[in-house]
Fold this protein.
Amino acid sequence: MVTESTLVLYVLIFFIIGFALGAWITRLLLRYPFGRKPLTGASSMIGSRGTVSAVSPNYLEVKVNSQFWRAENIGEGQLKVGDQIIVKNVNNLTLLIEKIADQKS
C-alpha cells in the first residue's frame, strides 16, 4: 500500500523530470529549428531582395535588409534607382545582383 507521502514524492519527481525533459527538448527546437543550421555571413544574403538606392558609372549601391551595400549587376540590362533586385552571390563585400523581372504581364 502506497502512503500519501510516497505518492507526493513520486508526483514531485515526475514533475521535475518532466520539466527538465521539456526544457531540453524546447532548447533543441529553438536552437536548431527544422534540423537546419542557422545561416550567417555571406550565405545569409543570397536570395535576399532589395532596392537600388544609387547608380553611377563606377558605383552601384543597393539597400538589402535595411543596410546599404556595394553591388555589381550580373544580370541583363541597366539598373536605375528604385529597381527591385535579388542577391545571387557575394564576392568579398560586394553583392552580385540581378534585377527582378517586372510582374506586369
Notes: The CA atoms of residues 19 and 25 lie 10 Å apart. The longest strand covers residues 49-56. The mean pLDDT is 87.
